[in-house]
Amino acid sequence: MTKLLEVLLLDDEPIVGRRLKPALDKIGCRVEVFENPKEAVARIDKKEFDIVVTDIRMEEMDGIQVLEHVQKKWPRTKVIIITGYAKMDLAREAMGKGVFDFIAKPFRPDDLRRIIANAAEALGSPIDFSSINNEPAE
Amino acid sequence: MTILEKLKKISHKEPRIRHFCIQTIRFKKFLENARALLDLFDDGHEKVLGEYIFDRHYVVSLIDGVVERLGMMVYDACVLVPKSGEGLYVTYDKHKLTAGNLIGGTPGSLASAPSASDDPEYQLLSDVLQWFNGKHAPDDTTVMGFMKQIFFSVIQFDAIGGIESMDVMKTRALFENSGVAATDMGIYLVDLWKDAQALPEERRSINDFNSIPLKHLLMDVSGKEAKTGSENIQNGVAWVAAVSEYQLSLNSLKPDFQFRLETLASGYEHSDFIFIFADKSAILDKILPAGFHIESTDYGQFAWYLDMSAKNIEDSLMIIGRNLLS
Prior knowledge:
The complex is a heterodimer of chains A (138) and B (326).
Chain A (H helix, E strand, L loop, with lengths): L4 E6 L3 H12 L3 E6 L2 H10 L4 E5 L7 H11 L4 E6 L4 H9 L4 E4 L4 H14 L6 H5 L5
Parallel strand pairs in A: 1-2, 1-3, 3-4, 4-5
Chain B lengths: L2 H7 L5 H34 L7 H25 L4 H20 L15 H14 L9 H15 L10 H10 L10 E4 L2 H4 L14 H7 L6 H11 L3 E5 L3 E6 L6 E6 L8 E6 L5 H4 L5 E4 L4 E5 L4 H16 L1
Parallel strand pairs in B: 1-2
Antiparallel strand pairs in B: 2-3, 3-4, 4-5, 5-7, 6-7
């Protein structure tokens, strides 16, 4: 049996977690959703996730800080940044700091699933991508 | 050279031709803003279908974009037809108020159709689309309804670039005296940039104009030019075309046939388009090829085709030219 990918999803907009969690569950991810970055970082301190997906602009702590924290604690973890509408400048900054990839809102769940599949492959735990494409639209 | 620099170079040799050129260029800006609004509508509709992940920032940005572009359209309309300004700005202020209420209010307050999701962001976007062009909303409360009103304000009083559009004889005399009648076709031809600076010293033929859309429009008409030309000499020239390399603005001068075609044929698909306004008597099905979006209103008929490939725009203009001018 294939090992489930451990994914932490952090976005202060509840709609993101609510819509993405079921989409990622379907491709073999075990997803923990957070809206508060400090709570997410506390969880990261306790558990090594395969992939962290985080919004870039949040109150209290931004996605770049989350990225730096993950890199310090778990260098193997792949971090994917979600950028807000037209915030590509911040995305470029994140790329310079070693983020695995980024995705700009609005996006389709399939767009993120493809990036997750790439990250899984980079981790040596590839996902059967054909199962993603056969999924009905969300 | 920027548009502003070009306009600064325009001399005062023929102020009414210059005015015609400036109004035509302003109408192009007006259309660009209308087009940007339609793109915003399309983007919102695409997102609300339920497949997208977006947040409130996206919806607020969409609302802000609509308010901004609508304001630009109103401004352009006021430049083209100054007396329309007061009424349009009153309605525009109402739309700004609606936009503010959407951003600050409770999603679902516009009694929109149920959204594909219970998420407040989706509900808010549904409300915004209801404001854009809700099927059950009164026309005068929607952005699309207001756009039609703005168009009508401009088209009705500015059918040929603001030059005494109600006085056809004076208009014809202006073009005739300016020496812009083509030697080989029954049409007045105005070079948007050169003629605004100095009127032509001698009459020109179609081939003297390096305008891609004009060449497409006349591609299938040229074989009949003798017939068309002689008919028009007898009946008086019925068309004026203002052109640049990639632009064409074609207007009917017939008092009983209002028709205006605007097109950009730059070769860049995302920006190229054909826009047409025709009075209610025009049978657009017999003039236009398939693919146009046509809206019939109390004011007349609007038709447009956006995002046209180079081949598509060439074929369409050729068919329109044949049906209109042959």
